[in-house]
Amino acid sequence: MLEDANLTVGQVAKRCGVKVSTLHYYESIDLIRSWRNQGNQRRYKKEVIRRISVIKAAQKMGVSLESIKHAFANLPNNRTPTQEDWQHLANQWQAELVARIRYLEKLKNSLTGCIGCGCLSMKNCPIYNQDDHVAEEGDGAVFLERELNR
Questions:
Q1: For residue 78, what is the DSSP state?
Q2: All domains of the chain in start order, with CATH
């Protein structure tokens, strides 16, 4: 089994189009796994290439590493995603992407008004948020967040 782990960190980095430090980071947060040879050098199994490809594809869709890690943790024996697994993950992440798009569209349409931050720097802020009364509702851009989360 460990004899299958014969790819060097440099080979994997080159094949996947990532930096060696990226592989080290992915390993440190348990997204990928390596084994050590007798010289204490990292070695990877071939399937790590698919795993990294899934990570990169998900990141391009805006999926966080935390979400990717959670998805991988749900795979039996923490295996490399199969084509069927990828389809399931893609459907799940597509729903997240649609929600993010809706949020960004609302944000785009709400950028010109008062955001309820309490700064009182805009001419219309005292009208909407006189004496910063929305501070009781939370930190930051309260009006904007309220609008975006509807």
A1: G
A2: 2-105 (1.10.1660.10), 111-150 (no CATH)
DSSP per-residue letters across 128-145: HHGGGGGGGG-SS-HHHH
pLDDT single digits (tens) 99-146: 889 888 887 776 666 666 666 566 555 556 667 777 788 787 777 777
Q: What is the rounded average pLDDT of the residues 65-76?
A: 88
CA 127 from centroid of its chain's CA atoms: 38
Q: Are 32 and 48 in contact (CB under 8 A)?
A: yes
Contact 32, 44 (CB under 8 A): yes
* Distances in whole angstroms, Cα of residue 94 to Cα of each of 31, 62, 87, 136: 21, 10, 10, 35
| Residue 20: half-sphere exposure toward Cβ, Cα within 13 Å | 8
Strand partners, 113: none
DSSP strand E in 6-107: where?
Answer: 7-8, 35-36, 42-44
